[in-house]
Structures are given as C-alpha cells and as structure tokens.
Design brief:
The protein has helices at 23-36, 55-62, 76-85, 130-140, 159-166; strands at residues 45-49, 66-71, 98-101, 117-121, 146-152, 171-179, 184-191. With 195 residues, the protein is of the alpha/beta class. The longest helix is centred in the first third of the chain and has 14 residues, at 23-36. Bound molecules: S-adenosylmethionine.
C-alpha cells in the first residue's frame, strides 16, 4: 500500500501527534488483525474516523467494502492522494472510498447511523477529545455497527482511561487482541442497548 504525508501533515494535521516512530505501523495492527481473523469486509458499509493516511479504510475498500474516510479538513487532500494512488488496477471492487470532513463531537450529524463497521486506528491520544469521540461513535453506531479500535496504550496520553471509563459509559467493550511487545491493543465495541 502506498501512503504519503504532505509536509503540512508532519504534525498529524493541526493536532498534536503522538511520539510514535511510525503511525502507519499502528494502523497495520488492525489490517493484520482483520486478515488473521478473516473479518468479512466485502459488501460492508464502513466509516473510518481520523483516517490520516487512510491505510485501514483503503484496505477495506480494496477488499470490497463501501468506505467513507473521514478526518479533519486539513488532512483530506492527502487522503484523496492516497486513495488515488491505491486504486486497484482493475478498479475499486465496490465504489471508490469517499473522503469527507468529520471533526469529532462537531460534524457527526452530517453522517448517517447505518454503518456495519466503524474503524479507529491510533486516534486515542488526545484526552480532551475522548468525550467528543464517544459522542460521535454513539451517533454512528445507533443502528448496531461494530467499532474496531487499535491503540498503542500510552499512559502519558491517558489512553487506558478511554477504554476503561469513557467508551464503557456507552458501549460494550471487548479486548480482542493484545501485542505485548508493541503495547498495542485492539478492541471491539458495540453500543449498549440501554443507550
Ligand atoms: C495518529 S493519527 C492516525 C492516523 C491513521 N488512523 C493511522 O493510524 O495511520 C490521528 C488522526 O486523528 C485525526 N484527528 C485528531 N483529532 C481529531 C478530531 N478532533 N476530529 C477528527 N479527527 C481528528 C488527525 O487529524 C489524524 O489524522
């Protein structure tokens, strides 16, 4: 998969960027998990939040999912470039991924709630956004979507508190994979029925 970041993206768009040598590596944890678990992506309606390079969503689209990639406005032109660079030679099996702005806690009402899967790769590192992200996930998952989240468990960014406090306030949360060496967890979550 070809991905690039534009010069203005070195700060991971306008937000703070976690001190990670390679954010794509954390997204690849989720790609690998989908392959190992044979998670069915073809035909699914998928939205990715904080897509960044778009690696996970683009993989899903190449496998036949109908994908919407979202991020802050500044990140979108690079996402478009990565989508074009990764079009299969035979064309997209479903449709080309859509690229749209979605700032957590602000724009989610512009999106429907009928997704099959919501993907989140390495987006849990800004504690001030945790309540906003839960609000956005709650809207997107109203009709039963499953959320997959891959995170390096950075104590300095309070990442564990997102999974132990913020997300469980509205979602059933299951740890489905842990990489001890990389300190990376993958969670699957679904909106609690009492919400
Ligand atoms: C560390 S990067 C991860 C990118 C990509 N998911 C990956 O794993 O390669 C975090 C992404 O979250 C996005 N982001 C940060 N705060 C956001 C917010 N409030 N709303 C929407 N996206 C946000 C950033 O623009 C960035 O693309």
């Amino acid at each position: 998969m070809k991905t690039t970041r534009s010069p203005q993206m070195t700060g991971c768009s306008r937000t703070r960027f976690p001190r990670s040598p390679c954010t794509v590596c954390w997204a690849l944890h989720l790609c690998r998990y989908f392959g190992e678990q044979s998670v069915q992506l073809a035909g699914k309606r998928v939205i990715e939040l904080g897509a960044g390079t778009g690696v996970v969503g683009i993989l899903a689209a190449r496998l036949g999912a109908e994908v919407t990639l979202t991020d802050l406005p500044l990140a979108l032109s690079q996402l478009e470039v990565n989508v074009s660079a990764n079009m299969p030679s035979s064309g997209w099996p479903s449709s080309p991924p859509s690229v749209l702005p979605l700032s957590w806690g602000e724009d989610h009402m512009n999106f429907p709630s009928d997704w099959d899967l919501v993907l989140c790769a390495d987006i849990i590192y800004l504690p001030e956004t945790y309540p906003l992200l839960v609000e956005t996930l709650t809207h997107l998952c109203k009709n039963g979507a499953s959320v997959y989240l891959s995170s390096k468990m950075r104590k300095e960014h309070e990442t564990p508190s997102f999974y132990e406090e913020h997300l469980p306030s509205r979602f059933n949360v299951e740890l489905v994979h842990r990489d001890d060496k990389q300190n990376n967890n993958i969670y699957k979550a679904s909106l609690r029925t009492d919400q």
